[in-house]
Specification:
76% of the residues lie in helices and 3% in strands. The chain has 275 residues and is mostly helical. Strands 1-2 form a two-stranded antiparallel ribbon.
């Protein structure tokens, strides 16, 4: 437990310093590119291998470098970002069917996941950086929304959870926990609106709707990564974070939530709703 707490404190310190300590983009760029590379390496290890339990580490490292490179390229050429976000959102819509159909259908577990992984990781990394570039507080809001919902789901599910949400994918998650997570997230939305935002009724409805969609998408991201790990027969995506597993284990919810939230803000801005 002590190891887990220390790791969490170090991670929070690094992320907050990158977000708020300077307006220079370089610390955040380095952090995001590094996270993309490690997440890509861990994703490759979860993919179907020619020989069971035998992972080609040079290829895994190469895949991580490729993921980091694609993320950096997308950050440099902004036009690619919209394409990445669109492809990511379509992939998440497809993954919803996969999660609902597991384990009766696992045809999705094939080499195409390597392409999907590139898209999902790069889209999430670019979305996180885009939110930070817009305002570090928007990124902080996303973190609070996702982690608040996750914490609410954990505590409510632990006390009141009876009906399983996806027993074949993640036996510990319950429908009651999902409700608890949504309620917790809505409390965060209301607090942020009252303290920092002045919205009309229409803007309030749009912002609330986007926040709810983001919360549900974060749950999907968590379930999808759990399903891949279960199918691959791996408990944790990695061991780089003592007490926490791998980078993917920490950002699984953000993989889906970040591009959906960032794309939602972008669409609202195009329609004249500039939050």
């Amino acid at each position: 437990m002590l190891e887990r707490i220390i790791t969490a404190l170090v991670l929070v310190a690094i992320v907050l310093c990158s977000m708020f300590a300077t307006t220079s983009p370089y610390p955040m760029l380095v952090l995001m590119t590094t996270a993309a590379g490690v997440a890509g390496y861990e994703w490759y290890k979860l993919m179907p291998q020619k020989a069971e339990r035998l992972i080609n580490k040079p290829l895994a490292y190469g895949y991580g470098i490729l993921t980091a490179g694609l993320s950096a390229l997308a950050l440099y050429f902004n036009d690619i970002i919209i394409l990445l976000w669109s492809a990511s959102i379509m992939s998440w819509c497809l993954s919803l069917y996969w999660v609902k159909s597991y384990p009766s259908y696992d045809g999705w577990y094939n080499p195409s996941l390597k392409i999907i992984g590139l898209i999902l990781v790069a889209a999430a990394i670019t979305a996180i950086y885009s939110l930070w570039s817009s305002s570090p507080w928007w990124l902080m809001y996303l973190f609070l929304l996702v982690w608040g919902a996750d914490s609410g789901a954990y505590f409510v599910g632990r006390k009141l959870g009876k009906k399983k949400l996806a027993p074949s994918v993640s036996p510990n998650k319950s429908i009651e926990g999902l409700y608890g997570g949504v309620v917790t997230a809505m409390l965060i939305v209301i607090a942020v609106e009252l303290l920092y935002l002045e919205l009309s009724l229409l803007e309030h409805a749009l912002f609330l709707g986007l926040s709810v969609i983001t919360v549900f998408s974060s749950v999907l991201g968590d379930l999808f990564e759990s399903m891949i790990k279960r199918r691959a027969g791996i408990k944790d995506s990695g061991r780089i974070l003592p007490g926490h597993g791998g980078v993917l284990d920490r950002i699984d919810s953000l993989l889906s939530a970040a591009p959906i939230f960032a794309a939602g803000l972008y669409i609202l801005k195009l329609t004249g709703v500039d939050l």
